[in-house]
Amino acid sequence: MAFINSESTKSLALSLFLFLILVGPTPSFARTPHVINFRSLNRYPEGLTWDPSAQHFVVGSQHHRTIHSVSDAAVVETLISDPTLPENATILGLAIDSIHNRLLALVHSAAPLPPFNALAAYDLRSRRRVFLSLLDDETPGVITIKRHVANDVAVDFNGNAYVTNSAGNFIWKVDKDGEDLVWADGIAVRSDGVVLVVSHHTLWFIKSHDSWAEGVVYDKTALNQEKFATSVTVGGEDRAYVLYGRVMEGLLGNSGREEFSIEEVRSKKENEEENVWVFVLLGLGLAYFLFWRFQMSKLVRDINKKTN
């Protein structure tokens, strides 16, 4: 049996330790922090994101309707210039949707400018705007005490954007097509689990396939804005009804109206699906009839053979 000297063991361990220190990786805390000092007149950027494809940072602007890239070498280039946005609007939160190759930007107008909050999406290849989704939930003509501020944005793998409101206790969600439930008012649930959400201009049909971990707007129906819908309920046979109460007239001080209405609103997609099922049932009925006729003809031939 061989024996190992304890002094030799200590010496070997010490040598191995020193070797790992000399040739091993340098601890990250020993690296000098990366700093990029860039120049851009009157920019005062508030939002920041990283574009992993282009390998540069992206910043917004407090006083200009522009978005800029900043390289490691502090080179600043204009990525987006959108003069159609409100004058003196601020570009706040930014995010890169790598899967859909889009740049998402929050646009906000601070006081004394008129309230404005929106999520803009730009195609990174063409640099053209894909959509501009308004986020304000103030009703036109109604003065609110607190102005909302769409501050920052994050995006998931499905392209859904989540926008923080630094002046409120909620988060906006906007899908990859730019839908947001703007000015949502009333809500109701059908027996099949479909959620109905109404605003003064739209009735949305929302459903989920994952126990409401995520909901999807699968259809929407335009409403009569002048009549100003404010509530929705589910009537007999799961029919959706909205109330046209002409509320805006009352808020503006008008009086004397006697007629109001409760109207059924249907989903165009669901109607199309119902029509498809009608044709399917007719087809099955025809197929059954032809099969029955074939069997009866065969039975008659068999009886004739036996009789002869």
TrEMBL record:
Keywords: Membrane, Signal, Transmembrane, Transmembrane helix
Xref: InterPro entries: 6-blade_b-propeller_TolB-like, Sensory_adhesion_molecule
Stored Gene3D superfamilies: TolB, C-terminal domain
Entry's transmembrane regions: 276-294
Cellular component GO terms held in the UniProt record: endoplasmic reticulum
Signal peptide range in chain numbering: 1-30
PANTHER family, A to Z: MESOCENTIN (PTHR31460:SF3), PTHR31460
Protein name as it appears in the record: SMP-30/Gluconolactonase/LRE-like region domain-containing protein
Species of origin: Citrus clementina
